[in-house]
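User: Please predict the structure of the protein below. I'd like the answer in structure-token form so I can feed it into my own downstream comparison script.

Assistant: Understood. Taking the following sequence of 253 residues as input:
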Amino acid sequence: MELINEFDVSVPIDTAWAVLTDVERIAPCLPGAQLQEIEGEEYRGIVKVKVGPITAQYKGRATFLEMDATAHRLVLDAAGRDTRGAGNASAIITAQLTSSGSGTHVTVTTDLTVTGKVAQFGRGVLADVSAKILTQFVDNLEQTVLIDDVLSIANDVVDDAAQRGADVLAEAAMVVEDAVEAIKETAADAVAAAGAAISEVKASPVVRRIDQPEPEAIDLLGSAGTPVLKRAVPVLGVAVAALIVWRLLRRRR
């Protein structure tokens, strides 16, 4: 099934892009999700879903199929399996960012496939749940990650101004050409060494464990509300009727 959701964030498009493509930073903002480890370009973790008294846990992975910084478009391939073997879920998620005044508008298209307990709710309920989960995700972003980014930008401006002043003073104090050349050579050696170290790390990806708090399960009944209750009432009616008949038969015996 295809689900389409939209939301806005109050930061410029380049800032929003940098945030939304940083999986490690935004994972704690997604309800029910916990990022556990990263290996190369693959992200692994769990998503907890609650349906009344039943809690299902999906363990899976996600990788970027496309990440176009120029067009501000990304495509994510995600898949997970119920740890109890009661079903699985997979999705191709496409996000398109566009400038909207001083902020950013994001359109998310999800091609979702689910089996097991969650699938019984149908497209209408899942669409309602996904919209509410996305709203909570954006609220969490605005209150944590995006605030940090705005403060970081302000600090960078201050630091840059301070650095410029320091550079002017340093240049005024430089009176010996040999000292300048020595500093340049040292910096070049450091950059070369850092580049070699980065290349070596990229050539041999390792699994990196992520320390994030245990997520609270997504409550599908709480998120879906009335649509789920309407579907549950007939089932409960049948169950009550069966119980009454059973008790009458016992009394006749």
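That's the full token string. Residues 150-155 have pLDDT under 50 and may be disordered.
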